[in-house]
Amino acid sequence: MHIVLTNDDGIQAPGLRALHRALLKAGHTVSTIAPVTEQSAVGHALTISLPLRVKEIIEPDFQGFGVFGTPVDCMKLGLSQLVKQKPDMVLSGINAGANVGPDILYSGTVAAASEAARQGFPAMAVSYDSFARRDVSAHAEFTTRLLERIPWSRIPRGRALNLNFPDRPVSETKGLALCPQTAANWHDWYVEGRDPRGVSHWWLDGDLPAEQIEPKSDRAMLNSGYISLTPLKFEFTDEQTLRALSDTLFQNL
Fold first, then answer.
1. What is the dotted CATH code of the domain comprising 2-183+213-248?
2. For residue 166, how many other CB atoms are within 10 A of its CB?
3. Predicted confidence (pLDDT) per residue in 184-207, tens digit
4. Which helix (H) or strand (E) holds 19?
């Protein structure tokens, strides 16, 4: 297969490089288009007020395009201009830090996959539940085997798959779990600090309350040691509210 590889951690990130090696080892053709700098939590941000610049990276065992922009910039520019041969699918990752529950809204990793899916390409986001620097070679090889087994023709257009690994070696996981996204929301707070001039600044912190996490959801399965796989769609229309409004909104206007 011809696979476009991207991420939000940057083109030098260990997770992306591990996937690149695993895909080539499995015999796939890889076109890498990723941000030059880290773009974590930028969501579906798109650059429209500045030109996009591209740096081609050529190394002995790696070649790719570094885009001075967001993950979605990479997909829009890459799939329309930089990749000359239409790919069979898009992979985004391996991200440092899980992307489950509400993180799906913020994640640049998931946003890149969702943008590719909206353009009609089979797409999967891949993340690992730790921010510590790890050797994720085995995770990349598992991802490569999995994508070769997925019946992509049975997945409707515009959908993306979201794969997350628990913070443990692949050999110690409990297997693959197909599961829904948790509806739990972050409990956020900000830690205040002061710069050398005495001016306040704030760092975001928070946790996902355990009592809100539904059993068998993506976060619950990750916490239990499973590799979670969640199909995602990006149609935001609320049909229930649409019906409720249609019954009441236009009465007696």
1. 3.40.1210.10
2. 21
3. 999 999 999 999 999 999 999 999
4. helix 14-25
